[in-house]
Amino acid sequence: MRTIAAYALRESLRRRVFLVVVVLTAVFLALYGLGVRVAFDQTGLLDDSVPLDDQAITGGTLLGLAMFATLFLGTVLAVFLTFGTVSGDAERGLLQTLVVRPVGRPSLLLARYLAAAAVAGGYALAVYLAAVGLTGAAGGWWPDRILAPGLLLAGGVAVVAALSLLASVYLSTTASGIAVFMAFGAGLTGGLLHQVGDALDVDSLENVGRIASLALPFEALYQWGLQLLTADTGGFTSVVINLGPFGGAQDGGPGLVAWSLGYVALAGALALLGFMRRDL
Predict the structure, then answer these.
(1) What is the pLDDT of residues 247-268, one digit of tens each?
(2) 149 within 8 A of 221, measured Cβ to Cβ
(3) Residue 131 in contact with residue 32, Cβ under 8 Å?
(4) 138 near 191, Cβ under 8 Å?
(5) From CA 233, how far away is CA 57, in angstroms rounded?
(6) What is the predicted pLDDT for the residue at 130?
(7) CB-based contact 107:1 (threshold 8 Å)
(8) Which of these, 85, 156, 84, lies nearest to 124 by C-alpha position?
(9) Of 6, 18, 67, 246, which is the most buried if we count CB atoms within 10 A?
(10) Alpha helices in the chain (DSSP H)
(11) Nearest to residue 217, comparing CAs of 256, 183, 176?
């Protein structure tokens, strides 16, 4: 299995989509670095009579924006590394030669997932840390928790990779890619509904958002990461930061981590069940 995982890892790094993502990431980080520098320069011109921590609001909001962009780019990478794992290789006639003893279907599926999750999750963590460094260098502001939000972001991308792998077993290559991106959009919409419901005190919207977070836990991991950026910030400053445009910050906990791991295991089991029954 380690041989297959190493092969899949090298294959992922050789794909053109990885080069495209690297170029887009460099452009994104350059624009983000310019944006945070201008934003922090303008922060010093604000009215000091307002009782707000300008540095925390600017840094927390911009880094939250960077986390959203990183989650999106990481999702794109995870989907393109996994959406053709079964259906694409089967259409090209590659699985018939790969799925033989001693490799076997379970080992092949697990190895491909581990390689994709390592590449996409590692990418998300690296981009997040780069954004943290740019924010700190531009304005001298650092998040209250530096590493944990990045790990949660990487975990969310790993959940998306599991969903994409599951879709590749039951759907064609194009259909699985479309389905995962629609699920990604549904998760973000659920997070926004929860935020609106919480602000307006509407229980039905809060429940819809809560159910969506459980059904698509990458969104809950992302929200928890946002919350940890300003975990020690209080008062009206915290309220303003949490009203971010890309989903509200929500606390998580060990239960969310356990559910996410169980979710990935369940998706893997369903993918293996379909893969074992598939006629190659």
Answers:
(1) 567 777 889 999 999 999 999 9
(2) no
(3) yes
(4) no
(5) 10
(6) 96
(7) yes
(8) 156
(9) 67
(10) 2-14, 16-43, 54-82, 87-91, 95-98, 105-139, 147-170, 173-200, 203-215, 217-229, 235-242, 254-277
(11) 256
